[in-house]
Design a protein that fits this description.
alpha+beta, D-Maltodextrin-Binding Protein, domain 2, four-stranded mixed beta sheet, three-stranded antiparallel beta sheet, 7 strands, 23% strand
Length: 111
């Protein structure tokens, strides 16, 4: 798999693209992973609330584990939002420990 800012996401020679579904019940939505360690209960309040709200309304909820996951999804055409619903990129506070991100759509690569 390859990816680069502005270069798209690739699985071998195949360009990855997100699903075109507009029905949330058929969408796979990804969120940031949970905080751990001291203060994690407070940090996870929004994440848990988001997970609970999504779980009954979408096909599946996935967790992203790194900025690389967000980059792959974004380069494949996913809509990436921060915990406030604003456009999310690699400079967003969510990737620096400050919040939760959500992604609509997401690439699949089977090598």
């Amino acid at each position: 798999m390859g990816v680069g800012p502005g270069k798209g996401s690739w699985c071998g020679t195949d360009r990855l693209a997100v699903s075109t579904t507009v029905d949330p019940r058929r969408a796979i939505v990804s969120i940031g992973d949970y905080a751990t360690g001291p203060g994690s209960d407070e940090k996870n309040v929004d994440r848990l609330r988001l997970t609970e709200r999504l779980s009954g309304n979408v096909e599946r909820v996935r967790m992203f584990g790194s900025a690389t996951d967000v980059l792959i999804a974004a380069e494949a055409g996913a809509t990436v939002l921060d915990h406030l619903g604003n456009s999310h990129d690699l400079r967003s506070p969510s990737l620096q420990g400050g919040g939760t991100s959500a992604v609509r759509g997401g690439p699949k690569c089977r090598e």
